[in-house]
Amino acid sequence: MKPITKVLERLSKVKHRKADQWMACCPAHDDRDPSLSIKEAHDGKVLLHCWSGCTADDIVAAIGLELSDLFEESDYTPKRSGPSREAVAAEVRILENALRLLARGERLPQVEAARVAKACLRLGVSHDA
């Protein structure tokens, strides 16, 4: 079933406005006059805008759907949680540099030791000072 069909069949007072656009009562608040704009994008995604300020999360939850239901299956990629690969790589470089210094028998400057502690925390590794 197309995402737009999933959404529209669960709303009330749906009015077709123009090609690929509708208005309906927002299910996330006590709406008597349609304040929810619905649009089907050219790629099949469903765009929602409540003129009273409800979020897309609130709207889809109120009709028993999830945000992923607004996308074609192949188009939806959940957001990654946690740091980006680049951020992890930067933290790893800080730890590698510190390990090189320690392996040569050098002491870490206080600023560098604090940065290493932060890198360990961000990477979720044990840091024994």
Explain the overall architecture:
This protein has 129 residues and is of the alpha+beta class. The chain has 2 domains: 3-75, no CATH class; 85-123, no CATH class. The protein has helices spanning 3-8, 56-62, 85-103, 110-123; strands spanning 12-18, 21-25, 36-40, 46-50. Strand 3 (36-40) and strand 4 (46-50) form a beta hairpin. Helix 3 (85-103) packs across helix 4 (110-123).
Major beta sheet summary: 4 strands, antiparallel
Which oligomeric state applies?
single chain
**How many domains?**
2
Strand order of the largest sheet: 1-2-3-4
- Total of helices: 4
Order of helices and strands: HEEEEHHH
- What is the first-to-last residue Cα distance? 57 Å
User: Which radius of gyration do the C-alpha atoms yield?
Assistant: 25 Å
Helix percent band:
25-40%
Poorly predicted regions: none
Q: Which class best fits the helix and strand makeup? A: alpha+beta
Strand percent estimate: 15-25%
Mean pLDDT: 88
Provide the fold topology.
Layout: H1 3-8, E1 12-18, E2 21-25, E3 36-40, E4 46-50, H2 56-62, H3 85-103, H4 110-123
Antiparallel strand pairs: 1-2, 2-3, 3-4
Helix pairs in contact: 3-4
